[in-house]
Amino acid sequence: MPCSRCGEKTLSDIIETPKSIDIVGKNIADIKDVAESIVDRRCSCFYFTGCGSSYYSAMLMSFPLQVEGIEVYAIPSSEIIMYYGSRLSRNCCLVSVSRSGETSETLEAMRIGKEKGTYNVIITINEKGAGREYADRYLYIDVGIERGIVMTKSFYSMTLTGLILTSNIIDIILGNKYNMVLYLDRLKEHAIKIIKEKENIFNLGNSYVKKNINRFIFLGSGPSYPIALEGSLKLKESSYIATEAMYALEFRHGPIATVGENQLIIVINQEGKSYSYVYRLYNDLRAMNSYILRLSNRDVDENTILLSKTGFEELDALSAILPLQLMAYSYATALGLDIDSPRNLVRVVKYY
Fold it and tell me: What are the SIS domain coordinates in residue numbering (predicted)?
């Protein structure tokens, strides 16, 4: 049975996304100052880290640096602790992402970095997190503490902050015109439109329950791959169902055998370098009569939810997370589950 009052806290957090974009915009000067401090430090390699949703956020914000050929690694904090800590040095910058600023593995990765002289930056929405002890720079984004347990507006705001940070680093090092700040209004307009039309997404979530779809596959390429991972995680956290995410074209190499099962394939198909390849896959899957949902800003059809159109693949990919969060909310509540209180989850993981 649908749960009429379940998920109210999480939905309130999601709806505050446009306000969160404004708040990130008010921190542009601080973000630029941190970027300048990183460049002044002459860091020759970058590590981006976090846990769970924060790790996927770290993956996406590192993408502009990867494209420009700068030495950069996106690695979960636990893996740094166990395997990569010895590679940290004074030549490295460690950018950590943590909603609470107190995630156990992330704090330990930062501690190891500090011990080795790494330049430590943390992005968080908690003004007084324990990460201050190890941080050279503490980027606090005041979007308010989330009411729900699963990450929603914090994922969007911290990822956007990180993308602006890395684009500023590129501008300073390479002199490229990588000014994402000019497109914050477009992101906000997109977020407002998605929220205004949220009932359409709720109807989709409800329809998937009625069709007994209980398996979801998320496909993304380039900067939308971390969003595919995060979208998959949101649905898994809230509904406890089988979901997976993979690079879009990898679906042809084995997993395409699952087409024909009672599953939904979600394709994130932002305009950019991967567009034509992923669009071809999408059309092939449609021809196979699979249940399919597409998120894109080009060649919009009846199966497509519109993404923002900024000219930056990273920003357009980020805009996909908002409708995916709303879909996870609607699917869970249609099952009678409370996304505000997902089983076995805690707000902050304080030991490992």
Answer: 34-180, 204-342
**Residue 282 near residue 310 (C-beta atoms within 8 A):** no
Q: Kindly report, residue by residue over 111-125, the tens digit of the pLDDT.
A: 999 999 999 999 999
What are the sequence ranges of the domains in the chain?
A: 8-178, 188-334
The CATH T-level fold of domain 188-334 is Rossmann fold (3.40.50)
Per DSSP, the residues of 259-287 read BTBS-EEEEEE-SSTTHHHHHHHHHHHHH
CA distances in angstroms from 145 to 100, 133, 247, 342, listed in the order given:
9, 21, 32, 18
| Helix extents (H) in 27-103 | 28-40, 53-67, 77-79
CA angle 104, 108, 110 (to 5 degrees): 120
Relative orientation angle of helices 224-239 and 53-67, to the nearest 10 degrees: 170
Cα dihedral 162→164→168→170 (10° resolution): 70
Q: What is the DSSP-derived secondary structure letter of residue 185?
A: H
Assess whether pLDDT exceeds 70 at residue 199. Answer: yes
Cα dist. 214→15, 78, 207, 322, 351 in Å?
A: 26, 30, 12, 21, 32
Residues 252/346, Cβ–Cβ less than 8 Å: no
Write out pLDDT tens, residues 293-325: 999 999 999 999 999 999 999 999 999 999 999
- Is domain 8-178 annotated with CATH 1.25.40.10? no
Quick one: tokens of 175?
A: 């002199």
Cα–Cα dist 117/277, whole Å: 43
Average pLDDT over residues 249-256: 97
On whether the CB atoms of residues 249 and 267 are closer than 8 A, the answer is: no
